[in-house]
Amino acid sequence: MARPRNFDRDHVLHAAERQFRTSGYNGTSVDDISAATGLGRGSLYGAFDGKHGVLLEAMTGYFARLAQGPRKMLAGPDEGALERLHAYLLRAVHGVPLAADVPPASDRAGAACFAAKMALEIGASDAEVKRLANDCFSVVRAAVAECVQAAQRNGDIDPDADPDDLAYLLLTIIRGTDVVGAYGHSPDRLTSIAESAFALLPRPRHR
Amino acid sequence: MARPRNFDRDHVLHAAERQFRTSGYNGTSVDDISAATGLGRGSLYGAFDGKHGVLLEAMTGYFARLAQGPRKMLAGPDEGALERLHAYLLRAVHGVPLAADVPPASDRAGAACFAAKMALEIGASDAEVKRLANDCFSVVRAAVAECVQAAQRNGDIDPDADPDDLAYLLLTIIRGTDVVGAYGHSPDRLTSIAESAFALLPRPRHR
DNA sequence: ACGTTTATTTACTGAACAGTCCGAAACCTA
DNA sequence: TAGGTTTCGGACTGTTCAGTAAATAAACGT
Q: What terms describe the molecular function in GO for this protein (chains A, B) (predicted)?
């Protein structure tokens, strides 16, 4: 028996995430979050315990979303695994979408992996952020590794290659495109990088 | 006939760079810079025109240093170009040194490419920083592309591969390891990523 | 309809911020 | 050694910051 909450929690966290993405953590004030979300300062503190709490919850929500996208894109039968990997790579280098139905931000810098951006900015002095960011990385890396194994079973990738090593490398490339994109390079250039990476995947020795 | 400057400009810029690297741009106050460099606020404003000016000059100095390191490591005869590329890749994934004779910071997060870190944090809203960061990227990329061409001439890399594409990809990987390193992964893991990347370089079809 | 409980808003506080200013110090020339 | 010039560093200003607390509004059970 009490007054129900008047805002949508996820909607607020999305708005906060967008703000953090464009201004960074230290570049975003509580008033900025307040303006972006429409919530007053008091409500923010009551619901999320301040700026840092908003960040942690936004990253947690991001993590939950992130786990779904690549998993759905990459999971499936062994047949076609290589094509799925190809499609994922091409999409991933153009940024991480804010939500399942929202395409990545138009400016590539704002579309960089949220977790990566926060980890680079404050991860060195914020263990919790660092851990959360690494969780984001790990879950995607695992999905990629699984898809690599599927492609290996289907004879599309050299069975001697270590799928974990390949997954690490591919994810490192995707994270690298966040940086290259922040430099201002065109989407075409990022596509070209992704295609180069895909072309270098080790094929079976004798087909 | 006047009082001479009492500090070494490069030394001050190095200290500021280290501060910016560990705390980020927005996370660094003018007092922090003052404490790190030993200069008073007035001197900082007189010599560098404030925080943003310090950043620009620090990045310019970084650019000048950065241009030399890889160029010296990668330049040389066609013979051995592939080995030089290998050595460079292995070193690069462990961070960018603060100076020629100073090894990268012990914490991998603080050793990330200074330009990349700044570009990701404020590049979206600071065109000058973005441009400087891209210059840093371009100069190293050009050095790598040249080394790739040397290796091609020596028959160590598939002559049909586009050296610029390969250089973009390799640099993207190196930038990606900055992010992966910020997640807290071990140096061994980064070495492994570098070795995987090197192993995938396209070799000539018939040796 | 009323009182309780919670959400929300607004005003407030002390600290930290970027940037300015000025007295003091250091140096060169004469 | 005196004068002129520049650097130096602490003190100062107005602003913005994160976080709190009190006041108001809204919804629910009874």
A: DNA binding
